[in-house]
Write a structure and sequence with these properties.
Two copies of one chain form a homodimer.
Chain A lengths: L3 H15 L8 H8 L3 H13 L3 E4 L5 E4 L8 H8 L27 H18 L3 H5 L3
Antiparallel strand pairs in A: 1-2
Helix pairs in contact in A: 1-3, 2-3
The first copy, chain A, binds a DNA duplex (30 and 30 nucleotides) through α3.
Amino acid sequence: MLSKKTKYGLKALTYIARSEGDSPVQVGEIAKSEQIPQKFLEGILLTLRKSGILGSKKGKHGGYYLRNEPSEIKMTDVMRVLEGPIAMVPCVSLNFYEKCDDCPDEDKCSVNKLMIQVRDNTLKVFRNTTLADLSDTN
Amino acid sequence: MLSKKTKYGLKALTYIARSEGDSPVQVGEIAKSEQIPQKFLEGILLTLRKSGILGSKKGKHGGYYLRNEPSEIKMTDVMRVLEGPIAMVPCVSLNFYEKCDDCPDEDKCSVNKLMIQVRDNTLKVFRNTTLADLSDTN
DNA sequence: TGTAATCCCTATTAAATTGATAGGATTAAT
DNA sequence: ATTAATCCTATCAATTTAATAGGGATTACA
């Protein structure tokens, strides 16, 4: 299941992408419009900024803005920042690899093989989707 | 992340599929061979039996057996029993649908659209994979 | 220069979930 | 009867998640 953090983060990014004008978008505005607890959202946008996806401007009339064009922001990056590994088991993760405690031999593990397929298919979706796709209002 | 329950369940099913002879396979044997806490595994096999995937024989020389051929046991069914919904958000789940508390309008939700794609691709994998594929020792 | 608005940071908490354990009841083979 | 297995329920500890709280630092602007 997708965490609220990720869901809220995706909605916020979409909101920012849609409001891109000259001035940065404020947390309070996003929180209100998207029905997200403001303090919770603050933390989420902070991690998105630290990861380089968002930029921010402090002080009065401050807020958040995208560091790149929506069409340049891939879901792979966003999802990894918000949700962590895309793979369902660590032993299959490209960016967060870890050996499983059980499992003496990965090559012989039936779960491993199945999860590689799932990972590849999910990756395909995330690689082919950008924030521009999310914010297209069709 | 895949729960241990699901991982253990998949390994156990694979084990049973590979040992299919005349007599049922015992929990203790699986637990030992696959390094799974026995009592935990008991519960897992119980739910697999209640869902109709496994059958059991009680008492001495009892154990568990597959109710169908491995090639008839689809991952969609196994995953839904062990892990629950395949979709990452309830509003996109085919078998466990629920409206999201936030989200006034699903059709306009950017997360919704993305997660439908992920779901469909994951489903594709699970529908095309059976226990026979998992237990093929290549 | 002061005040309000905004992001920034850390700590805390409550609830839910997960992984595991415990103890025995029931059933069947010998 | 005895033994060996499944079956069932309850409980527990650890972790994770979602949310809240309280204030610090920075900036615009009157």
